[in-house]
Design a protein that fits this description.
Organism: Longivirga aurantiaca
Number of domains: 2
Largest sheet: 10 strands, parallel
Shape: elongated
Helix content: 10-25%
Structural class: mainly beta
Distance between the termini: 31 Å
Number of helices: 12
Number of strands: 33
Keywords: Carbohydrate metabolism, Endoplasmic reticulum, Glycoprotein, Membrane, Signal, Transmembrane, Transmembrane helix
Oligomer: single chain
Membrane topology: Single-pass type I membrane protein
Pfam families: Malectin
Family: Belongs to the malectin family.
Radius of gyration: 27 Å
Length: about 525
């Protein structure tokens, strides 16, 4: 195997078309060989398939990862993104340096676990084209890649190597024997990312070179037999490490108590697919509650106690109050569909509540003191619109919202409820979002941890990743914040409709006005399987 790297790639083509359509969740599944073959036929690359020794030379194949495909000004064809397993589409409007044309690098796929591209059997130089479009510090994104089981790079930090918005390539020469080039990605921090895949056939050594080693191969035959005793002599060496192997056993057993404490968390759905950013908290002697036994959705929990709240895995959880959770320390909710099927009810308190005190929320978290982990949940209302999405009044809590969708339109007015997709008015200490979608008739996110109290201490910057909030014709501001929090990191955040985003553009970095290319929470709902976690 040979590996190479380059901070400059001079053959990147100029983009002539741009993708503007929204891709359904199903389109993100791995393409079949037939689908990829069809794409290549359209691109004029039919000789990639079924090539034999007598066929014409196999052309190079270029895949526009995360993009719709294009034909460069020099005639180079980049096919639309295909062959991937998992991941999401991303794009940046930033200029990319280190390349003559950064068009291909402005679209990218992140979070994928693999690519499988049909090619003729043979030897290829595989090049991954990348840039770091989001992070502006090292150590934030670290990942590895293999091609046909051969390491292309291990624990690569693109920013550490070339910086922000700079092209970087990594290559490896591999041999394909089963008619498909297989790439695998594994993230250590954040998500793996790639903007382009180049597959170039390699002219293998000529026949005379292939035959010259033959005598060398046969001559060692006697040498192979003579070392037989040498092979047996190391046997004791092989056995000597046995005690070394067993010695760590006590070390492995020592953490057993730690491993058993979060055992209930381990019973959550087995990880598969694209990893999320934040894992559930470690739980101490958690109490498990099957929410199907709570028909009104109002759950009162004991202070200082950890909980796993289970939604039905094969049915919709219908109730009158959504998820109204009061108290508890660490709380984990993973997967399920919540149908707020009841009518409006007396809400108690909270900003934006109309004078008559009636509200209809998807979820309300009140007075937790640990980490709230809400993942893979879909909220709907079969009896009509919702007035609020997720409300938070937990000044001492950390909140993690991942792969969550609100699929019923939120309705409200300035005089009544403000129909926030996500609103915090007292805390949390930090808000971490990775995968969240909602449609609102008034307001999207209202982020003010000290709106009703100064009891909360914001301990770290807030993060919004892979978020889409759509405002309808009656909507007002989609994103609204009050300092603190001092910092909000945004990544792949899309807003549309309404009056746009309140505050200056510097308050909302990396926010795109327009529809997202994919549904960031398509997997939420009954039957949800957690994809696992990068951190």
């Amino acid at each position: 195997m040979a590996t190479t790297s380059s901070g400059r790639h001079t053959e990147m083509p100029r983009r002539t078309v741009a993708g503007t359509g929204r891709t359904a969740a199903s389109s993100r599944r791995s393409a079949t060989a037939v689908g990829v073959a069809s794409a290549l036929v359209v691109a004029g690359l039919t000789s990639v398939f079924g090539a034999s020794a007598g066929d014409a030379a196999i052309p190079s194949l270029n895949i526009d990862a995360g993009g719709p495909g294009l034909t460069a000004s020099d005639g180079t064809v980049w096919t639309a993104d295909s062959g991937f397993t998992g991941g999401k589409l991303g794009k940046t409007a930033d200029p990319i340096t280190g390349t003559e044309d950064g068009s291909v690098l402005r679209n990218y796929r992140f979070g994928m676990s693999a690519y499988k591209v049909p090619v003729a059997n043979g030897t290829y130089k595989v090049t991954l084209v990348m840039a770091e479009p989001y992070w502006k510090a090292s150590g934030k994104r670290v990942f590895s890649a293999t091609a046909e089981g051969v390491t292309v790079f291990s624990n690569l930090d693109v920013y550490k190597v070339v910086g922000h918005d700079v092209e970087l390539t990594r290559s490896a020469t591999v041999t394909v024997k089963d008619g498909a080039l297989s790439l695998a990605f594994k993230a250590r921090r954040d998500y793996a990312i790639v903007s382009g895949l180049r597959v170039d056939p390699v002219d293998v050594a000529a026949a005379p070179e292939s035959t010259t080693p033959a005598p060398v191969t046969s001559s060692p035959a006697p040498a192979t037999s003579s070392p037989a005793p040498v092979t047996t002599s190391p046997a004791p060496v092989t056995t000597s490490p046995a005690p070394v192997t067993t010695s760590p056993a006590p070390v492995t057993s020592s953490p057993a108590p730690v491993t058993t404490s979060p055992a209930p968390v381990a019973t959550m759905p087995a990880p598969s697919g694209t990893e999320l950013s934040w894992a559930p908290p470690a739980l101490t002697n958690p109490v498990t509650i099957d929410l199907a036994s709570k028909p009104d959705g109002r759950i009162n929990l004991s202070a200082g106690t950890d909980y796993i709240l289970r939604l039905p895995t094969d049915a919709v959880y219908r109730n009158t109050h959504g998820l109204e959770i009061v108290g508890g320390r660490n709380i984990v909710i993973i997967g399920g569909t919540v149908d707020v099927a009841g009518g409006w009810y007396s809400s108690g308190t909270g900003p934006g509540v109309p004078a008559d005190g009636m509200v209809k929320r998807a979820a309300y978290f009140l007075s937790q003191t640990g980490t709230i982990h809400l993942e893979g949940v879909r909220f709907i209302s079969s009896s009509g619109n919702l007035s609020e999405g997720i409300n938070i009044s937990a000044p001492l809590a950390k909140v993690q919202v991942q792969n969550v969708s609100i699929d019923t339109v939120l309705t409200g007015t300035q005089a009544t409820n403000h129909a926030d997709a996500l609103q915090c008015w007292n805390g949390p200490t930090t808000l971490l979002v990775d995968g969240f979608t909602a449609t609102t008739g008034y307001q999207g996110m209202f982020l003010n941890p000290h709106d009703t109290s100064t009891a909360s201490a914001v301990t770290e910057n807030w993060v919004l990743k892979n978020v889409e909030i759509v405002g309808n014709a009656q909507a007002k501001y989609i994103l609204w914040r009050v300092r603190p929090p001092q910092g909000i990191a945004t990544y792949n955040v899309f807003t549309s409709g309404g009056l746009g985003n309140w505050n200056s553009s510097s308050d909302w970095p990396n926010v795109t006005k327009g529809r997202a290319p994919v549904d960031f929470a398509a997997s939420a709902g009954a039957g949800y399987t957690s994809p696992g976690y990068a951190g």
